[in-house]
Design a protein that fits this description.
mainly beta, five-stranded antiparallel β-sheet, 3 helices, elongated
């Protein structure tokens, strides 16, 4: 018997409050299928497919109801309640699914839909986790340059932003590619694949391709110059760190934007910075 999955079992005996199921006739371990879920034509010896979990008193129980998520898989589930031990999620069964505090990677609110995986804890109870890395597939159908959508499921100061592309494939926005405000856990993002590793994991870039990004960067840089009195004290010889601190842009993006504005005769280049053309 496998908890958290559908099992094909055999009806071994009936009682007033349901029927008992086992893996096969003569098996010692039996599981109750409560009366409200027993098909009217089920007879002793008949096979039946059920989902196995534990009830509110941690007793093994079977149901013919199909939950919205099964063991080792990922799904979006609605938060039905917040408690002192974590959040409870609606997964289609009478007993709601616990998302423990320790398995939360970001803020969880009432009625939110959260992307989670289903796992068995040390007591063999089914629980949800937002730590999706082990459950995501590396068999990506995408290639470098493709635009994809996904859900942010975890943020790391060291590595960057972890994303579930299509809510199923493993991806990362590396820390070096991040600037400005970062997407929060639960955010839906659109990004470009900058690299597909040999193991199938993907690196993502929130920026558009350079030739598409250039006008957007140029407009943003021009507004920044205006907000700073018509002048910025950074130029193409400034360090990448200084440019990012002042503009929020990488040095390459900054140089492309400056070149675009200069070509359009909107700025002047100075020895220690750039200035709006009068």
């Amino acid at each position: 018997m496998e908890f958290g999955k559908e099992n094909t079992m055999v009806c071994v005996r009936k009682c007033d409050f349901g029927v008992y199921l086992a893996e096969h006739s003569g098996a010692q371990t039996e599981v109750l299928l409560p009366k409200k879920w027993v098909p009217s034509d089920l007879e002793t010896g008949d096979p039946i497919t059920v989902f196995l979990y534990k009830d509110s008193e941690d007793r093994p129980v079977a149901t013919t109801v199909k939950p919205q998520i099964t063991l080792g898989h990922i799904a979006r589930l609605r938060v039905s309640a917040l408690t002192g031990i974590g959040a409870f999620l609606d997964w289609g069964l009478e007993k709601e699914l616990l998302l423990p505090f320790r398995e939360q990677t970001g803020e969880v609110k009432q009625s939110d839909e959260v992307l989670v995986a289903l796992y068995l804890d040390k007591s063999e109870r089914l629980c949800a986790t937002m730590k999706l890395y082990p459950y995501l597939s590396c068999r990506t159908p995408y290639v470098t340059g493709d635009e994809v959508t996904g859900t942010v499921y975890e943020c790391s100061r060291n590595f960057g932003i972890f994303v579930a592309v299509d809510d199923k494939y493993s991806a990362l926005i590396p820390r070096r590619e991040l600037s400005g405000e970062e997407p929060a856990v639960g955010s839906r993002i659109t990004a470009r694949i900058s690299r597909v590793h040999e193991d199938g994991k993907m690196d993502l870039d929130l920026r558009k391709k350079a030739y598409l990004q250039i006008d957007e960067d140029s407009t943003g840089l021009l507004h920044l110059i205006e907000e700073n009195g018509g002048r910025l004290l950074v130029h193409d010889k400034s360090s990448p760190e200084e440019i990012r601190q002042v503009t929020g842009m990488s040095k390459n993006a900054f140089k492309r934007a400056v070149g675009h504005l200069y070509k359009d005769r909107l700025i002047e280049l100075e020895s220690d910075g750039i200035r709006m053309r009068k």
